[in-house]
Write a structure and sequence with these properties.
The protein is an alpha+beta fold. It has 16 helices and 24 strands. It comes from Cetraspora pellucida.
């Protein structure tokens, strides 16, 4: 039975509470002095206009959609909102007006007026002129617009044509700082949502560090870009292993989760701290590894970043400990009423006084504000920002040192390294608190890959801080580090611990030898022998006439008879055998349904060996397709694909 079309429910109480808050701050700004922060944010505008056309995937963070999400809980396309000091006007599609009628309920309502747009251009022209007449009311005709937001679509063009006829009568002001001012301080509902986003980010980072330790310990080769994709897929595949291992995630609605950006992974002496940084195609290097990832939950962003140190020198450990010290110092300064520029200056002075050799390597910004938008640039934590922090603000706190020299490097790529620690922080009255947790201390991010002989030799030289065990199997004869939260300097003194370790290693060696004999012995029975994976060719259709006629409509077709899915790709109907599909995910946001299909490809570091070998692993592969539609038929297609995959697995 097909699903009914998703019913959009607007929370009238939340809308009116936040609308009253918005209008109150705006009105209070009109009575402030011109040099006051709140006046500068709103600049004395008499009306505020927000226009949203088609959703533009290349611009996921815009003030226009952020204010929609904040007030309504959804992003609505082809919608105009006009704020006046005594009423809020909406121009919406005729069929969507019923949804907005839900706002006309509850106590202490903010007056609203809903204007229904139709396919009749003359009717729409009349609506636009009514809105323009509201802007023209009063002596001053200063209107606040989101001048930097990108918009597109027929609705926007239709509105712009009408507005341009009167544009010369208005003084246009960029209202983005005003909206940023209101959205900067989060209410209790927003804080709860952000905390959940932080829990997901923390869990993903914990898993990422385990994955990297396995890759390094098993001497696998993988590029930063490939690893970034695999980390991102952790969220979309909803792997039960790591979801169920974190009790804090049991109540998460994963249909409302998304990544803020493609995870950034850097190593091998090439590091970039710019906001535009991306994972490159270089191979992961077992030296200093940086990773940052962000998760959006119900449109609210979180961020976390960690450094992984492989066989660090004493100087690297010392620098990392100082990095943590700087973060602690910064948290003490981030509190209500403090000016952002003053905070940065004091942190920089602290670095100069304690470690002047690192001052010129310190970051130029301590991060930025964060919320529905990942980067609230009005609250960039740099030395030039004169704005004050307020309790309830969410910050992306970024502490780091870039391009440090390692004179004791054992290879060329280890000569330059960088350190960072990134967390989501909440500003309080007296201090700040970190909402992202774990994998922060040296013993949780520091790993040793050296052989026993190397470790013993280094022990005589100098005591080492605790290094974490890489528990996965290692290739060849190279031994895995076996120390976990244990000082190397204690090895000689702790005889019983050393004996237990050797005994455990002997047991592992005996077990490994037995497994090897069972695997490669010619006399092994069928249950214990390892069969070499053979490439299987999947054929969806032997000839064109077998393809369903419905492909001419260029829609997604699930063909159970041929065990195939036919996808529209750039105007062509392309069949994919169900055996090539790794998984499929469905999510809903606003009026849109998203369907993501992930395919099996070579080189995916998923932690498990693929059952499907590839005829030519060097060929070009499609990893994923994402389709978006307002039609709920995508939900039916999702169910059919799941059923087909289950049937094919029998």
């Amino acid at each position: 039975m097909p699903e009914e079309k998703m019913e959009i429910r607007l929370d009238a109480d939340v809308f009116h509470k936040r609308a009253r808050h918005f209008l109150s701050i705006w009105k209070s700004s009109l009575n402030k002095e011109p040099n006051d922060e709140i006046y500068q944010a709103f600049q004395g505008v008499n009306s505020i206009l927000v226009v949203v056309g088609e959703i533009m995937e290349e611009y996921p963070y815009q003030k226009s959609t952020a204010i929609q999400q904040w007030l309504l809980g959804y992003e609505f396309t082809d919608t105009l909102i006009l704020f006046t000091q005594d009423k809020i006007h909406f121009i919406v599609k005729e069929k969507r007006a019923e949804v907005f009628e839900q706002l006309k309920q509850g106590d202490r309502q903010v007056p609203i007026e809903i204007h229904k747009r139709s396919k009749d251009s003359s009717h729409n022209q009349t609506l636009f002129e009514q809105i323009i007449s509201r802007i023209s009311e009063g002596e001053q005709k200063r209107v606040g617009l989101l001048l930097k937001d990108k918009t597109s679509g027929n609705f926007v063009q239709e509105w712009q044509n009408a507005y341009n006829n009167f544009k010369q009568d208005f003084e246009e002001v960029d209202i983005a700082p005003g909206i940023a001012y209101v959205l900067a301080v989060k209410d209790d509902d927003e804080l709860r949502t952000t905390r959940m986003a932080c829990k997901i980010s923390t869990a993903m980072m914990y898993l990422f560090i385990n994955v990297v330790s396995s890759i390094i310990d098993e001497e696998k080769e993988i590029t930063h870009e490939q690893l970034s994709e695999d980390v991102e897929n952790m969220l979309y595949t909803k792997d039960e292993k790591w979801l169920t291992s974190h009790k804090s995630l049991q109540d998460v609605d994963f249909n409302r989760t998304d990544v803020c950006y493609a995870p950034i992974i850097q190593s091998g002496g090439v590091y970039d701290f710019k906001p535009s940084a991306q994972s490159n195609n270089n191979k992961l290097h077992d030296g200093t590894i940086l990773c940052s990832l962000g998760v959006r939950y119900k449109s609210y962003c979180s961020n976390i970043g960690r450094t992984i140190l492989i066989d660090p020198t004493k100087e690297q450990e010392k620098n990392y400990e100082f990095l943590l010290d700087v973060q602690r110092r910064t948290l003490e300064l981030l509190k209500e009423g403090q000016k952002i520029g003053d905070i940065y200056t004091r942190v920089m002075n602290y670095v100069k006084s304690k470690r002047p050799d690192l001052a010129d390597k310190f970051v130029k910004s301590l991060g930025h504000g964060m919320g529905i938008e990942f980067r609230e640039s009005a609250y960039n934590l740099n030395q030039r920002n004169t704005k004050e922090l307020k309790a309830g603000m969410m910050l992306n706190l970024f502490i780091g040192f870039i391009d440090l020299e390692n004179p004791k490097a054992t290879d060329e790529k280890s000569k330059i390294y960088s350190l960072w620690i990134i967390d989501t922080a909440k500003v309080n009255n007296n201090t700040s608190q970190l909402l992202t947790e774990g994998n922060r201390t040296l013993d949780s991010i520091c790993f040793s890959l050296k052989d026993d002989n190397e470790s013993d030799h280094e022990t005589k030289k100098q005591p080492k801080r605790p290094t974490k065990t890489l528990d996965t199997k290692r290739t060849g004869n190279r031994k895995s580090a076996v120390l976990r939260t244990k000082f190397r300097s204690e090895e000689k003194d702790d005889e019983s611990q050393d004996q237990r370790r050797k005994k455990h290693q002997e047991e592992l060696a005996a077990r490994k030898q037995a497994d090897g004999l069972a695997r490669f012995s010619e006399k092994s029975n069928e249950k214990t022998s390892q069969h070499k994976a053979v490439f299987r060719a999947f054929e969806s259709y032997k000839r064109d006439t077998a393809i369903p006629k419905e492909v001419k409509d260029l829609k997604i077709i699930v063909d159970s008879k041929s065990e195939s899915i036919i996808l529209p790709v750039f105007g062509f109907a392309v069949p994919f055998h169900i055996s090539t599909l790794k998984n499929v995910n469905k999510s809903e946001e606003g009026e849109y349904v998203y369907l993501r299909l992930n395919f099996l490809t070579p080189g995916q570091a998923t932690g498990k060996k693929e059952d499907n070998p590839f005829d030519d692993p060097s060929a070009t592969f499609v990893r994923a397709f994402t389709y978006r539609s307002t039609d709920q038929l995508l939900s039916d297609i999702y169910k059919k694909i799941i059923d087909l995959k289950k049937a094919a697995a029998k």
